[in-house]
Amino acid sequence: MNEDKILRVALDWAVDEVDPPRSFGGWNTGRVVHQTHESLFEDDFGELPASDGAPTSLVPRLATHCITSPDARRYTFRIREGVRFHDGCPLDAEAVVINYERMCCATSPFFSPVVADFNRMGVGLIEKVRALDSMTVEFKFSEPFPEFLRYMTQEDAPGAQSLISPAAIRKLGPDGCADKAPGTGAFRFHSRFETDGGSAVELRRNDDYWAGPPQIEGIRFLPFPDLKARVRALVEGKVDVAYSLEGADLEELAALGFTVPSFNPPYLWYLVFNLRDPLIADLRVRQAIAYAIDREALCAELFPGAAVPAHSALSPGSPAHDPHAANRYGYNPERARELLAEAGASDGLVLDVIAAQAGSAQLDPGAIYQRLALDLAKVGIRLNVTLHPDWVAYCNQWREGAPSGIAFSEMSWGMSCDLWLSQILHGANQSPRGFNAGYNNDPHLDGFLDLARATLDSSERTALYQAADARVMESLPILPLFTSRRGMIAFSPRVKGLTVVNQCWQDFRRVRLE
């Protein structure tokens, strides 16, 4: 390969196994597999957002079109002709059926309990997926599911509805395809190799890509867990693109000629309260913590010009996100002390809390917790912080639910699909079955979420999700702290043809290097 035509991308953590439906490595894995694998529908990465906070548009990718029944219980896809997986296996209706049977059909020989677990929010309502002919697939749902297409576009949600070669599933089994899962994308997985920062991957151009081969010959995704190392790699020309630069001097990077776009990715850095802890279960204590934290100062001091306080549990870039949501918990340490006194928790309160040391879009959890500790100490709360050194291990433990004695954990997540709110807070999704890691059990909230999921009219659905969001901010099972506005990605002047949309990963199919 011509090294001048290799796009080098700096990530903030190593890349998990490349098998999209079975991966749980966060957005870094999604940033890789978006280049190698495709779904029936995807975000439109060729169109700039219609407005600052607009969600991505959806476009057919491996399908040419979809017919949705009026009750949103039946989706019929026409499969794009002439597409092949990287191993030469043709894409047809049978390939789609095998992929979805891996996710949701327990009686199929292709079924994987792990894949089903990771993808349950997106495919759990599927009653039947069948081939109507060689290039037409029908999905039948047990309930209306109007968000099926938007949820389909989520990378590492965890898991993904990206398709892999049915030949690989047959040969290696439904759980044996890690790094051996050929996709249909513009780039194919070539190799995994070790660096000082962890496991990296190299992709090579798919010369037979159905939409025409990319201009660049390959991509290397290189982990740099340290922010200063990522910035240095970009400035010194060792990489062309870098993710997760919130906390760097973005104005200096811009002055040096790097593009540092402002946009609204569906990103939220938030605390997850352990509602099985008797003290934290008291709403007054959670509210006191919220009032005690100066989110404006946190953003200004740690991520200047990059992060902004979050006042909503719906992430930016999702259809129901309200950029004008009220700030219910402005900085008010006096009110925090009053609430703690009312709860009988005003004397030397010590909270054991956990976080990742670093990880995919985690930014700097240690520094964030230090900043929280300063604020909380002013109202009589001391934090006893444990930082976990391995990001993927932390994710797996976090998903199991808050351990006894832990007051809160943290996560950086979000989706361009409002259903995410149900994924992390619905009572039916309590850990370890789902990702409600703080064990929230609120029938009032669940009612809003259940209605929203099945509501066909988009404006009515938005209103229901916003009502659910208001309930979350009132009851505080989680505490949103901030979101990213600038610095999630930056790139060199030699990178051309990259359109940045409101998403946490970007598409490099049209990129060229000068």
Describe the structure.
With 514 residues, this protein is of the alpha+beta class. It has 2 domains: 3-226 and 488-513, D-Maltodextrin-Binding Protein, domain 2 (3-Layer(aba) Sandwich); 268-484, Roll (Dipeptide-binding Protein, domain 3). 28% of the residues lie in helices and 21% in strands. Helix 12 links the parallel strand 14 and strand 15. The two termini are 16 Å apart. The model has no long low-confidence stretch (mean pLDDT 97). This is ABC transporter substrate-binding protein.
How would you briefly describe this protein structure?
It comes from Stutzerimonas chloritidismutans (Pseudomonas chloritidismutans). The chain has 514 residues and is of the alpha+beta class.
Low-confidence stretches: none
The count of DSSP E runs of length 2 or more, i.e. the number of strands, is 20
Strand content: 15-25%
What would the average pLDDT be, to the nearest integer?
A: 97
CATH topology of the largest domain: D-Maltodextrin-Binding Protein, domain 2
Organism: Stutzerimonas chloritidismutans (Pseudomonas chloritidismutans)
Protein name: ABC transporter substrate-binding protein
For this entry, give a set of tags.
2 domains, four-stranded antiparallel β-sheet, 21% strand, D-Maltodextrin-Binding Protein, domain 2, 514 residues, 16 helices, Dipeptide-binding Protein, domain 3
